[in-house]
Design brief:
Blueprint lengths: L14 E4 L5 H12 L3 E6 L5 H11 L7 E5 L8 H5 L4 E4 L12 H21 L4 E5 L30 H20 L4 E7 L1 E3 L12 H8 L4 E2 L3 E2 L1 E3 H13 L7 E4 L5 E2 H12 L9 E2 L2 H7 L4 H5 L7 E2 L4 H7 L6 H14 L7
Parallel strand pairs: 1-2, 1-4, 2-3, 4-5, 5-6, 6-11, 7-10, 8-13, 9-14
Antiparallel strand pairs: 9-12
Helix pairs in contact: 1-7, 4-5, 6-8, 8-12
This protein binds NADP nicotinamide-adenine-dinucleotide phosphate (NAP).
Length: about 350
């Protein structure tokens, strides 16, 4: 069935490549671009994911099916990237190994992230793409530093001389490689990097993305107490919006842009907000925080806490003020995001409430 979305005569017709369209953030980027009137090509690793992706996008908005094309490409191989970028004005390079699957080794994770960025950038430069927006991460900004009270900003870089976990190391090395490539071999192609903090928000389909595991675990009652750490949060729809702004706004080129909706919140504060927002549906959400020494001890044995060990006792406070000031970005309050996240996880059957 072909559906048509509203397009005004002055809507600029541009072709945008979004890498990894089956992912949580990328699927929202595809949706935001279609709604803004751009034509979209997206890559997946598994062609079998195309029908579900199309269905979830059609459920969210009305668009002509021909405006979206889906192609196959893997960050670990050259095949497919030249075709993926051909004719594109812009690229949003969102795909990267995340905590969805545990990589065989830290080296493998770094290689897929960094070499993948270079593959995409090389292909984009050769295809005369105007600007690439790289989805970096707070992980490339705020790890490996001593405790501090001031929020992290775009001036900060993760300190790789410290013990930084593989995912954050992969994002830092990938972003550094991207800036170096564009400076030395970019041929005038522009780069902007977006750095989301902890991303939550509704899912477009019955997916269980890694970044919603904390909220899902709270709703499921999987843990009786919250792990002790604090981070800034941001809505996935606002992350997608910031990608589109970073793509088109002349002021965004050459910049790093933190996507943060505000001051950091401890997980236990998030749990309380979930209870306030969701009432009975949040009956299993914990109300207390695990004391730090206990969490540290348990993290030696308990796999979920072990995965959180680098975060325990930390406060990852980051500000999105630069994007608000210079790009007119307006992230929504996190309380609303939490309510929408819970509604969507319940509606798609990812969690059963009560
Ligand atoms: P996600 O749902 O797990 O999406 C990751 C995407 O990357 C998927 O589309 C995945 O494809 C793709 N991918 C992974 N390895 C790949 C490879 N070797 N070749 C091609 N594609 C590959 O996670 P997400 O949260 O949306 O993350 C998207 C981006 O945002 C990542 O760059 C991540 O580092 C960044 N980020 C996320 C957060 C957060 O809190 N969610 C915060 C900061 C930054 P498959 O579907 O085939 O696996």
């Amino acid at each position: 069935m072909t559906r048509t979305s509203p397009r005004t005569p002055d809507t600029p017709r541009t072709q945008v490549l979004v890498t990894g369209g089956s992912g949580f953030i990328a699927s929202w980027c595809v949706l935001a671009l279609l709604e803004a009137g751009h034509d979209v090509r997206t890559t997946v690793r598994d062609a079998g994911r195309e029908p579900a992706l199309r269905d979830s996008l059609h459920a969210a908005t009305d668009f002509d099916d021909a405006r979206l094309t889906v192609v196959r490409a893997d960050l670990r191989a050259d095949d497919g990237w030249a075709d993926a970028v051909a004719g594109c004005d812009y690229v949003l390079h969102v795909a990267s190994p995340t905590l969805r699957t545990v990589p065989d080794s830290a080296e493998e994770m770094v290689a897929a992230a960094r070499d993948g960025v270079l593959r995409v950038l090389r292909a984009a430069r050769d295809a005369k793409v105007r600007r690439v927006v790289l989805t970096s991460a707070f992980g490339a900004v705020g790890y490996g530093h001593p405790p501090r009270t001031a929020p992290f900003t775009e001036e900060d870089w993760t300190n790789l001389d410290a013990a930084v976990p593989p995912y954050q190391r992969s994002k830092t090395l990938a972003e550094r490689a991207a800036w170096q490539f564009v400076a030395e071999e970019g041929g005038g192609m522009e780069l902007a990097a977006v750095h989301p903090v902890a991303v939550i928000g509704p899912v477009l389909g019955p997916d269980d993305p890694p970044s919603l595991r904390a909220v899902r675990g709270m709703l499921d009652g999987a843990a009786p107490m919250c792990p002790p750490f604090a981070t800034s949060w941001v809505d996935v729809r606002d992350v997608a919006d910031l990608h589109v702004r970073a793509m088109t706004d002349p002021a965004a080129a050459g910049g790093r842009w933190l996507a943060s909706a505000g001051r950091s919140l401890r997980l236990v504060e998030v749990a309380r907000m979930l209870r306030e927002q969701c009432g009975e549906r949040a009956a299993k959400v914990p109300t207390r925080e695990l004391p730090l020494p206990v969490a540290r001890l348990l993290s030696r044995f308990e796999p979920k806490l072990r995965a959180l060990r680098p975060q325990l006792g930390q406060d990852f406070d980051a500000t999105g003020a630069k994007a608000e000031r210079l790009l007119g970005w307006r992230p929504r309050p996190i309380g609303r995001t939490l309510a929408d996240t819970a509604d969507s996880l319940l509606a798609h059957g990812v969690v059963r409430g009560g």
